[in-house]
Amino acid sequence: MTRIAASFFAAVALALLAAISIPLAAQDDRDVAAAPDPYVYEVDTLENGEAPGDNPLDLETPRGLVESFMAAGEVEDWQTAAAALDFDALDDPDQTARELYAAQLYDLLHRSVSISWTDLPDRPDAVDTQSSKDDPMAGTPRRSLTVARLALNSRLYPMRIARLQPEGGEPVWVFSRQTVDNVPELYGYYGPTGFERALPDWARKQAFLTLAWWEVVALPIILLAGGLAAALTYKAISRLREGVEGDTKLGSILSAVHIPLTLLAFAGTIALVRATFFRLSGPVRDILDPLQLLLIVFAVIGIVLSVMEALFDLATSRRSAKLEAPENYEDRNFYTRLSAIRRIITAIVMLGGVGFLLVASDLSTTLGFSIMASAGVLGLVLVFAGRKALGDIMASVQIAFAQTARIGDAIHYDGKWCYVEKIGFTHLRLRTADEKRLIAPVSDFTDDSFENWTRQDASLIVRAECEFDSRADVAKLREEFCDFAKEDDGVIDVEDAACEVISHDAQAMRVRFLARASDPKSGWKLECRIREHMLAFAARLDASAERDIGPAFLKREREVRVDQPRD
């Protein structure tokens, strides 16, 4: 048994060793040189173009390679520039093909990327002497560096340089064979369009920075085309809204998507014009690409959320009277939960859009965003800016799912009786008894207490308080109120009716009348009727009583009589 087990494990070990050795052998046919200089790729021969002897390139350091290559490209000396490329991946290209590759690579580096010259070491071993000691690559020799990256078909293509040492020769830095192999495909996407090739020579010459004269002229044209498309879209939607005034549903949707569609027309037209006619150079493209993508993503998010918001508001506004009905608990629960789900979907859509924007635009590696991200400034700004908003969103979701305040509920907030009309991300929209709209922050409904009059039972005891003279006959007031409670249709339970003296001072006594109503709206009307009826009853008693004989009912200033002394 022991021998069988040993044989089994030996076979497994041999199989693993063979599986590991095969891919390692197939990875690269180039070996890493041994001491004294291990940071090179050893090759039999160096497959690069032959530069003229009187104008050689500086291939000793990474910075020297890129600088001398770009200098040769500026004067269109493609025979010299071809010496900076490793053609090992190609099938024996002739000199014309090599010069074409060099010209296309120069165009990509000149127009489509921003080279960070400070990141290119000026040492043969590519040791970065300027990086922080916390950088894991600080002080480490390297044999391969990434100069830039270009995105194509949802993939980033690195443009790398490598240090090669041919047999019997000195190590040199050249553009890697994989980078050279990718040049035609990248140039087909980032290179000049047919429109640009048809331009005269003077229009393609460099004006300033990396901008050609045609780009200086094209930029205002691109923006003008986007602005014209946006203006036409805005006008067209305005006409449609005027034509569907009677259709509330379609009118609400058009009103909601008016601005987002206008923004989408602006950004989409710019993207279409750029893709069809103008392919701008690196710095301008680095600015326009993220901005264009930002506008398109925000416009699409705005359209989706606006339509969803409009449909929900339309549904709840048409059923507002039914939602406020005392017995309609199920609809109030349903629309409140739907409101919470809508906010969750909104948050998911927004987070998904922002995530797509960050991944698609690669903001962390372009322009000043890399500086902000490396310093942590961008993260701190986003955290502090979103802390309050995120807290409000979570509070609104908490209110909706806990149903402490449902859409259609009658609540008492800040001394006012209101109906909940909408639960938003950061606020609640309340409708007061006099048809005014009160906007309240959601934090008030999670941090502070409030009264919900329809949470479980819509019926409530209303209280009408009146001030009477201290000499008023409370028994007569109580008898009259009980008769009123029996006769009034708004009082649903006569047993709950009560008349109570709740306070007293030198001026008057305060009497409270209690009665149960079916719902808050009926209760408010009942409270007003009670107050009117009892004050009118007291006034009649006052009018029928003789002065200084019967009891006084209505509050009045006390009269003090001082007898005059007799002579």
UniProtKB/TrEMBL annotation:
- Would you indicate the residue range of the signal peptide? 1-25
Q: Where is the composition biased (Basic and acidic residues)?
A: 120-136
> Which chain regions cross the lipid bilayer?
211-232, 253-273, 293-312, 340-360, 366-385
Pfam families hit by this protein? MS_channel_2nd (PF00924)
Name the domain of life this protein comes from: Bacteria
Q: Which GO terms of the molecular function aspect are on file?
A: mechanosensitive monoatomic ion channel activity
Principal localization? membrane
Q: Where in the cell is it found?
A: Membrane
**InterPro entries xref list:** LSM_dom_sf (IPR010920), MscS_beta-dom_sf (IPR023408), MscS_channel_2nd (IPR006685)
Q: Which UniProt keywords apply?
A: Membrane, Signal, Transmembrane, Transmembrane helix
- Residue ranges annotated for the Mechanosensitive ion channel MscS domain, each copy included: 390-455
- Name listed for the protein in its UniProt record: Mechanosensitive ion channel family protein
Q: Give the CC-aspect GO terms.
A: membrane
Positions of region (Disordered):
120-141
Q: Does the keyword Chaperone apply?
A: no
